[in-house]
Amino acid sequence: MKTQGISRQPFVTSLAGFLFLFMLCVLTPGSPGTTTALASGLIEIAELLAHPEQYDHQDVVVTGKVMNVQLATNRQGQPAYGFLLQDQAGTLKVVSLGQLEVHEGDQVIVEGVFNRLRQVGRTIVYNEIKAISVKPMTRLNPDLVG
What we know:
There is one protein chain. By secondary structure, the protein is α+β, with helices and mostly antiparallel strands. The protein is built from four helices and five strands. It has helices at residues 15-26, 36-40, 45-50, 52-55, and strands at residues 58-73, 79-87, 90-97, 107-120, 123-136. A five-stranded mixed β-barrel has the order 1-2-3-5-4. The termini are far apart.
């Protein structure tokens, strides 16, 4: 009796796949510090850039490299920051209140609300995430993340 071999590609073929699997196994919905966006899984930057209207004003979780960090203070005197989140597919702007706990070049996971456009005076900012959480990937679990 001859059986046909079925070629199966491994599920975890990328960093995003690994993180999605990690979140499914370790971070269950309802656990402390986990929000609905994190429980629903990662969205790739390419997906946000390809379909910004679909994710407009939605909770998202993305990963990438921190570039061009800018520190600021808002009108109420609170610390704020912004940076570009970059991966091989593209770049998004990330802004948030508080102290930045990551550095230029860090691989991070960002959770926040995506806006396809926001008007600031006469300037329009496209593809921006207002971050709720920015964490270096090594802080997730140093034993599992290189």
